[in-house]
Amino acid sequence: MRIIFMGTPEFAVPILQALVDAGHDVIAAYSQPPRRAGRGKALTPSPIHRLAEPLGIAVRVPETLRDPAVRADFAALDADVAVVAAYGLLLPRAVLDTPRLGCLNVHGSLLPRWRGAAPIQRAILAGDKETGVGIMQMAAGMDTGPVRLEGRTPVAGKTAGELAGELSAMGARLMLEVLADPDAYPPVEQASVGVTHAAKIDKAEARLRFDGSAVDAERQVRAFNPAPGAFIEVNGERIKVLAARVDPDAGGVEPGTVIGDALEIACAEGVLVPLQVQRAGRGATSTGEMLRGFAVPKGARIA
Of 36, 87, 98, 227, which has the fewest Cβ atoms less than 10 A away? Predict the structure, then answer.
């Protein structure tokens, strides 16, 4: 098939690679424009941009798809289908209707649950037992289109990074199945009940909260790993918590209080025990290793 690929982050990389490996003719890759990143704030192309160019795929990075000239260039590609994965720009109806088979989206949730920007993180934060990925025929609304095929996987114990990698690989495999025989996977309308919205992650959400349960705090740790990284503040220094476990209730201790020698932190329900941490400007390490050079005594209050 003649395919236009539209994606930006690492989540989209295995999907584009799978299309190429399967012998599809990827005639263009649309991605978000290069953004300033790193300490030097240099303009950095997206992961999809960096993958596509060495493969000889023309890369297009419009700021918007509403420009008539951009839409005309899109239509001139004469594609059979557009495959979309975490692109990050709204597709107007004129774009959705241009390819012969329309636009197929790899969405990282079991729709209609978690429509929106951050379905993987929201599934972890909500304590969902199961999530998955769907191949959705895109429509004008936010993730409202019918689903052609989906796969499922347990959530328990997985970080957002681990889950994203698993769902990306699953989505690539399912997309190839649909493209091989679209008529075998007719679009099925989403249920009208059970709709939830996966709002974009605000960095402020990554500050660990201890006024709820330790179970909720541990979900924060997994949901924000690798980015933006759940964190605490100790002596004015921000420390990321990359992994943690939940211990039984400390009993009557003010939430946010360190109750042991291994940085055990009391919550309103239960105790959060950080297992892997990272100080600013340093590499990840075990909590024990950090505490050998950065003491946090019992009774300390964690912000």
Answer: 36
Alpha helices in the chain (DSSP H): 13-21, 47-52, 68-76, 93-96, 119-125, 160-180, 214-223, 287-293
Judge contact between 206 and 217, C-beta under 8 A.
no
Query: Which contacts (CB < 8 Å, 24+ apart) does range 225-233 have?
Result: 225/159, 225/160, 225/161, 226/159, 226/160, 226/161, 227/160, 228/201, 228/203, 229/278, 230/206, 231/206, 231/207, 232/207, 232/208, 232/265, 232/274, 232/302, 232/303, 233/207, 233/302, 233/303
- Tell me what the mean pLDDT of segment 264-287 comes to: 96
Q: What does the mean pLDDT of the chain come to?
A: 96
**pTM of the model as a whole:** 0.95
pLDDT range class, residue 303, cuts 50, 70, 90: confident
Q: Would you state the pLDDT for residue 296?
A: 94
Cα-Cα end-to-end distance for the chain: 54
Cis peptide before 92 (omega within 30 of 0): no
Dist CA 277 CA 265 (whole Å):
14
Q: Report pLDDT for 267.
A: 96
Degrees, nearest 5: CA angle 46-7-228: 60
